[in-house]
Amino acid sequence: MSNELYNIIVRVTDGIYEGIAIGGDVFPGSTLSDHVLRFNNIPQIKMIVVLGELGGRDEYSLVEALKSGKINKPVCAWVSGTCARLFKSEVQFGHVGAKSGGEMESAQAKNEALKDAGAVVPTSFESFEASIKETYEKLAEEGKITPVMEITPPHILDWLTHIPTDIEVYIRPGSSNG
């Protein structure tokens, strides 16, 4: 999930400051909100993107932080697992934490709570990329982000034709290079 999210983010923004992947641990060392609150206090971070999943209640600590004003940066969020409602019985996803134990742990309930708390929440995972892009572009228009232009590295053959002249090159006698 993290790799897919990072791929989405770098396609529509100028990059990622830091990425984390947490969840599924019975006794986690940190929570989603621990990191989001930390990100909120790093000046270089201008927006926060969260990809959660059904099961557990960690996203609700983020909801409370948003509602209480502890987070003042835009948060784009999506909780995956909305397909779980299509199954007649409870479904276990990737790890122990990705199992919905009731309505409050459903992806739909978490997405709705995040949206009500002020996060930018798309209507589907397919539109998550557009939500991230729109939020990023809005920040750029407001002057809160100055996009960093990507630097194109020189083509390797260009580099080879511009070998510095102060380098001594030794070619072994009898080699095919001599």
Give structural notes.
The protein is mainly α. Helices cover 34% and strands 7% of the residues. It has a two-stranded parallel ribbon. Helix 3 links the parallel strand 1 and strand 2. Helix 2 packs parallel to helix 3 and helix 3 packs parallel to helix 4. The radius of gyration is 23 Å and the shape is globular. It starts with a helix and ends in an 18-residue tail after the last helix. The mean pLDDT is 81.
Keywords:
178 residues, mainly alpha, two-stranded parallel sheet
Round the Cα radius of gyration to an integer and report it: 23 Å
Kindly state the percentage of residues in helix.
25-40%
Which structural class is indicated by helix and strand composition?
mainly alpha
Low-confidence runs: none
Mean pLDDT: 81
β-strand percent reads 5-15%
The largest sheet has its strands arranged as 1-2
Largest sheet: 2 strands, parallel
Number of strands: 2
Shape verdict: globular
Distance between the termini: 52 Å
Instruction: Report the order of strands and helices.
Output: HHEHEHHH
Q: Figure out the total of helices.
A: 6
Brief account:
The chain is 34% helix and 7% strand.
Q: How would the blueprint of this fold be written?
A:
Elements: H1 2-12, H2 32-40, E1 48-53, H3 58-67, E2 75-80, H4 107-117, H5 128-141, H6 156-160
Parallel strand pairs: 1-2
Helix pairs in contact: 2-3, 3-4
